[in-house]
Specification:
Length: about 230
């Protein structure tokens, strides 16, 4: 696969250099390339980095089917996790400009109320497993648990209450995200990377520090079975 990728890049570069709107010239026996719209000659062209994701192998048809179900659920809730990360970044930038504690608290409360009013009805439609995946993805995007984010925006008591309520539905707001240690998290990461690469979704860099290929090496040596949850 890597050889095919290198050959493809080679053909791409060769085809680009032969385009009629580019001109290759020689200054003192060194080749330069003029690109249309660019007045500065270039001695080389930097190509975008391409990451070749390994092919997943499943034990059987049912394992593959469970992966597809996890894929559907992950892609459904990912936009909400991305929104949470976007809003948190905007919130923190705004809070840095406010000096008084009362102003900071009022603004944080305003943002949380806006998010709750705009998306609460949609979030209520999520199943238990979709809700838990959302909690994991929020941690992936922000590096903080949903419990800690609520605690940060409001009070510790409110965070405790939310977590207690969520636990009634078997959802933990303290859930983290670790593709190295948790197989489901690895599969979710695989789903995200493949869809980010195909541009089916837009993404943010994860706030966490882990190596996908290390996770793949670990879990591919074991039975790759997606979660069996049906909710």
């Amino acid at each position: 696969m890597k050889l095919i990728c290198l050959l493809f890049l080679g053909f791409t570069f060769f085809g680009f250099a032969q385009e009629p709107d580019s001109l290759q010239v020689d200054f003192e026996n060194e080749s330069y390339i003029y690109i249309e719209g660019d007045s500065i000659p270039k001695s080389s062209i930097v190509l975008d980095e391409v990451t070749v994701l390994p092919k997943l192998k499943f034990e059987n048809y049912w394992a593959n089917k469970r992966y597809l179900i996890l894929r559907r659920k992950t892609l459904k809730v990912y936009p909400y996790a991305k929104l949470a990360a976007d809003r948190l970044e905007s919130l923190n930038k705004r809070l840095e400009t406010l000096d008084r504690k009362s102003d900071r608290k009022a603004y944080a409360k305003k943002i949380q109320k806006y998010i709750e009013e705009e998306f609460s009805e949609e979030l209520k439609k999520l199943t238990r497993t979709e809700g838990q995946i959302l909690v994991k993805l929020i941690y992936r995007q922000t590096g903080k648990t949903t419990f800690d984010l609520i605690k940060q925006l409001r009070s510790g008591w409110r965070a405790f209450w939310f977590n207690t309520t969520a636990s009634l539905f078997n959802i933990s707001l303290k859930e983290t995200y670790d593709p190295i240690e948790v197989e489901e998290d690895y599969l979710i990461e695989d789903i995200l990377l493949r869809n980010l690469q195909s541009k089916d979704i837009e993404g943010l860099e994860t706030a966490l520090d882990f190596n996908y290929f290390e996770a793949h090496k670990k879990w591919s040596s074991q039975k790759t079975n997606a979660p069996t949850n049906k909710n």
